[in-house]
Amino acid sequence: MAAAALAAGTPGFALAQAKLKVAAVYTVPFEQQWVGRIHKALKAAEARGEIEYKATENVSNADYERVMREYATGGNQLILGEVFGVEAAARKVAKDFPKVAFLMGSSLKPQAPNFSVFDNYIQEPAYLSGMVAGGMTKTNRIGMVGGFPIPEVNRLMNAFMAGAKETNPKVEFSVSFINSWFDPPKAKEAAFAMIDKGADVMYAERFGVSDAAKEKGKLAIGNVIDTQAQYPDTVVASALWNFEPSADRAIKLVKEGKFTAEDYGPYSMMKHKGSELAPLGTFEKKVPADIVAKVKAKQADILAGKVTIKVDDSQPKSTAK
What is the DSSP string of 103-138? Predict the structure, then answer.
């Protein structure tokens, strides 16, 4: 009984036994690729019984701070989201609630004591998917449609381009940004324009691009999620982002009372299982055997630490004439 009383009087013990209250604020719908991966990881933790999870989607930048504050005052111990357009407001909320843990998608640095940042550092599988694309193009022209030219997007595009160049030095790229995180019709139109100019492989950084490729009988490379099931004859390969290592780490640290401001970026890398190249699936027999061998060798070198894929956050440029 004495031991039980002692345990009951220890705050950390009580917290460890209770479900952690977790909330998320998203500026786009749950179905959007990037947010969808965060949502999936948190839903998995909820299904395991580790957390109580609430989330709000499609929050405007103007309303973001209010929703964050509501979750913080509502007893949530960990709050997640993406704050690229609302950095100042989000960081102000974190300062006002120093006992709440915040883990936010951000281009900036962590903010002590309680504002951690994360990012999709999936340049490694993006490079591998580029190697596949370089081996699949017949016209030596690849089209690339991105959301905004920010570091999170640029680094994946640049890695993809470098990978394509490794397997096909002749390849040229058409690059455009639609300046939206979720506008499939606009992305589709941008892709159509590139296909009309000769692109036969499309880098689908945004939803809508694979639809254009499918309609025109061209190929696509996926990003962040694997949509091959929806496009079995179109999507060749995809660089997948797994948010589970980041989410699970944050949940564990908050439960232990050890959460601090840090950069979770590295937990998106392949060695932490934070990213991977999706199985080739329906294209397993269609990708040339020599390309598959090169991709497997490069992947092994990455995992062994023999090769480091460069993080290039500069805005990628078109090279196609």
Answer: EEE-SS--BTTTEEEE----HHHHHHHHHHHHHH-S
